[in-house]
Design brief:
By secondary structure, this protein is of the alpha+beta class. The chain has one domain: Orthogonal Bundle (Cytochrome p450). About 50% of the residues lie in helices and about 10% in strands. It contains 17 helices and 12 strands. A 5-stranded mixed beta sheet has the order 1-2-8-5-3, with helices on both faces. A 3-stranded antiparallel beta sheet has the order 4-12-9. Strands 6-7 form a two-stranded antiparallel ribbon. A hairpin with a 2-residue loop joins strand 1 and strand 2. Helix 6 crosses helix 17.
Length: about 450
């Protein structure tokens, strides 16, 4: 018999392990299937807790507009040990908002121009390295660009040798961060120094020591990188962040930004080369900037922005926004008790044909024809926990893609359009989007 506290919850699939497995394996199939079968909202039992999910924009709006004190981060016990207990992703209110205020300034204003110079140089060099090769994967190349941008613009690596050392440490840790460690926290155990968790923690500690070295360097050499800004940031009472907290936030920006921008870059390159009219319009727009524009100019191009948005609409990197209720929450006609999660199903909203006619069709023009509300288009989440690096990620996508499409021609090396597959907590194009490139 279902516990009394769950009796009023909507219907949904049965079985924690089976439901978790299906969400892990193919959320683009399982979530719409459950919505169609059980209605909206519906309830999903998972190993990290029970969650009520909706794809109804009216209910999504209620979640995003809810009192921040009503919610805690979802599965904080699972993500805390992997990125740090002081990560803004794992903190509850009011400390979450306190940390968020310190993290916001580096992602806005003139600082973005300095990041743009780094992004443009890295993108130009990386694409030039693969130009003429018989084959490369857009996802792998995008990740190499994104990682170098992070170690330089976020961690503050100033010379090539240090950037390479940090990149190797990051890649080693990411390679050992199995998605099972995030979704099944009972696996976060050290079995005598062996097993996936022990291996991950060894990699984690290596990077942690290197991040501390970056913090110490930032104290002696003022820079425009995010690490330097966090070292000099002060809370309202004038106190600085602790070194431990800074390391946790740097790791958070790494996990949140390394794959996400690379995945969207790969999807865009695939989509535009399967839609020649879109590619032609993009090239016409970029041609107006001349041969050597300021990288920041790419981020001002409306059709390039719409193209990136459409790629994130069709295949969002993360398929749902999750919150844990710490006190009862009224969502529509349902009273959700404390201890139950609520979720805005990103993929469910993005594939609504009443919002996006012919939702499977790649058509950037829809973002020029109307403005979508935050509860109708939500690739970066929403509400008080919306991704803090959204502006940075969008800026990077525009600079990298603008640089690539302005200076290089590409040819797809796979006939079939890729399907999204699970990579850690993200969904990426299967096969990585194989391409050939040549300088224009």
């Amino acid at each position: 018999m279902m516990p009394a506290m769950l009796e009023a919850l909507p219907a949904g699939p049965a079985g924690k392990l089976r439901s978790t497995y299906r969400v892990l394996r193919d959320p683009f199939a399982s979530l719409p299937e459950w919505q169609k079968r059980f209605g909206d909202p519906f309830t999903i039992p998972t190993v990290n807790g029970t969650v009520v999910m909706t794809g109804d924009p009216k209910l999504v709006k209620e979640i995003f507009a809810g009192d921040p004190a009503t919610f805690a981060p979802w599965a904080a016990k699972a993500i805390g040990p992997t990125i740090g207990q002081a990560s803004v992703l794992a903190l509850e209110e009011p400390r979450h908002m306190k940390e968020r205020k310190l993290l916001t300034p580096p992602f806005h204003g003139e600082r973005m121009r300095a990041y743009g110079d780094i992004m443009g140089r890295v993108a130009e060099r990386r694409f030039a390295e693969v130009a003429g090769a018989s084959r490369f994967q857009a996802l792998d190349l995008g990740q190499s660009i994104s990682l170098e941008v992070i170690v330089r613009a976020v961690f503050g690596a100033q010379d090539d040798e240090r950037a390479q050392e940090l990149s190797r440490a990051v890649l080693a840790m990411i390679e050992d961060s199995s998605p099972l460690l995030f979704f099944m926290p009972f696996l976060q155990r050290d079995f005598g120094g062996i097993g996936p968790w022990a291996k991950f923690r060894r990699r984690y500690e290596v990077l942690d020591r290197m991040l501390q070295e970056q913090i110490e360097h930032a104290r002696e050499h003022e820079g425009v990188d995010i690490c330097s800004m966090l070292v000099r940031a002060r809370y309202e009472d004038g106190t600085p962040m602790s070194d431990s907290d800074i390391r946790d936030e740097l790791r958070t920006l790494l996990f949140a930004g390394h794959e996400t921008t690379a995945i969207t870059i790969a999807w865009v390159l695939d989509h535009v080369h399967r839609n020649r009219e879109v590619l032609a319009r993009l090239r016409d727009e970029l041609a107006t900037l001349g041969p050597t524009p300021d990288p920041a100019e790419y981020a001002k191009q409306p059709y390039l922005e719409a193209t990136c948005k459409e790629a994130m609409r069709i295949y969002p990197v993360v398929t749902e926004v999750l919150r844990m209720c710490v006190r009862p929450f009224r969502m529509g006609e349902i009273e959700i008790p404390a201890g139950i999660g609520v979720s805005a199903g990103i993929v469910l909203v993005h594939w609504r044909d009443d919002l996006y006619p012919e939702p499977a069709k790649f058509r950037p023009e829809r973002f020029l024809e109307r403005k979508f509300a935050p509860y109708e288009y939500l690739p970066f989440g929403g509400g008080h926990r919306r991704c803090i690096g959204a502006a940075f990620a969008s800026f990077e996508m525009a600079v990298v893609l603008g640089t690539a499409l302005s200076h290089f021609d590409f040819e797809l090396q796979g006939e079939a359009a890729p399907k999204p597959v699970r990579r850690s907590v993200t969904m990426a194009p299967g096969g990585g989007v194989p391409l050939r490139a040549k300088r224009r």
